[in-house]
Amino acid sequence: MVARMRELLVREWDPAGVICDAAAGGPDYYGEQALTIVAMLAADARETEIQRYLRQVEHAALGESLHSFEARRAIAVRAWSLIR
Question: Which pTM does this prediction carry?
């Protein structure tokens, strides 16, 4: 599950590596983010909570949102569907 979530994050959330670079993420940055999201979903988080988490990570790294509300929501829904 974590590997599939990592793939989703790399492919859809940060394909250019902008967030990872800005956060000075290490070699397993996406794996760490994926593990957090899988844990959130295992604890019954809803799509809106995943969406909020992604926005918080974007803001922490970039000082602003990289994605629109709709784009982040679509990623969060796919993440939720992947696990559920």
Answer: 0.92
| Domain count within the chain | 1
Supply the range of the domain harboring residue 53. Answer: 2-83
Q: What is the pLDDT along the chain (84 residues), one digit of tens a residue?
A: 999 999 999 999 999 999 999 999 998 999 999 999 999 999 999 999 999 999 999 999 999 999 999 999 999 999 999 887
The 3-state DSSP composition of the chain as helix, strand, coil percent (nearest 5) reads: 75, 0, 25
- Provide the CB-side half-sphere exposure for 76 (13 A, CA): 19
- The tokens describing 61, both together, are 């790294």
Angle (nearest 5°) at CA 21 between 59 and 13: 60
